[in-house]
Amino acid sequence: MYKALTCVLIALVGITSASNVFNVKSYNIQQVASPFAQPELRLTLCPACIDIADRSINVLLELILDTGIIGSCSALCQALGQKTGSAILATVCDLVCDVVGIDEFIKMIDKADIDPIWYCEIAKMCPINDHGDAKFTKFTIAPASGPKGTTFTFDFAYTSVNGTGTGELDIDIQCPDKIPIGTGFLLEASKAGTYGQKVTVKAEPDPHCDPTQEMCEEWLPGTYNVTIQVCNGECGSKHPHSAIYDTVKGSFVLTK
Ligand SMILES: *[C@@H]1O[C@H](CO)[C@@H](O)[C@H](O)[C@H]1NC(C)=O
Ligand SMILES: *[C@@H]1O[C@H](CO)[C@@H](O)[C@H](O)[C@H]1NC(C)=O
Known about the structure:
With 256 residues, this protein is α+β, with helices and mostly antiparallel strands. It is built from six helices and nine strands. The strands form two sheets. A five-stranded mixed beta sheet has the order 3-9-8-5-6, with no helix packed on it. This is Saposin B-type domain-containing protein. Keywords: Disulfide bond, Signal.
């Protein structure tokens, strides 16, 4: 086990970190470089592991559905390594599966009950802080209204007294046509302090959205309700080490 972990650590260094890693993603929503300092001790291992988890979870589900009975962690994780051609994915899978046990692991994958942050916390690659906290101290949307094509900027900050665990910043927009759009950003565990972020939303149809495959936001005139959450773990996750620290709401108006 110890040897395997060393291999992972070395191999991970070469992987670029992912910042936009969660299930719901919208092309329209972009993170602007933060005017506040990022956590001083930047742990590159955690984002790399989140990327690994993202690449693993669906393939694990396919393997379980295709092959039926899989008796051991090593058999399942080896199959993952073979299917993806990545030994690192297999090694991290082994770390998580060994902790939760093969039966529980399969059950969780079957129920689509695995989120990448929890996966990487169990693998001991993302730090856990269950005494963390965060409160929003600022949230503005500018401009307040504009025509289709306008770029709206969400400017917000939150303060943490105890620091934060590995978590997520989740942005959801309720649109007049009821098509939900949103995105989530990984928040690496941080020390106490005030952290600011700017996110832009361009109110124009996503050129990557294929209306034959999915519903595409048209950006009709009306009021768009925005909800931003800062969370320990993935927002909405039912796993341990998960909680919503705080929520802010706002809105903007598309005039035509
Ligand atoms: C902050 O940490 C202290 C000590 O661990 C704990 O007692 C307190 O409940 C924490 N605050 C929050 C908001 O979790
Ligand atoms: C936005 O919020 C307002 C007030 O809560 C509500 O009346 C309206 O239906 C919401 N709009 C959308 C598109 O969800």
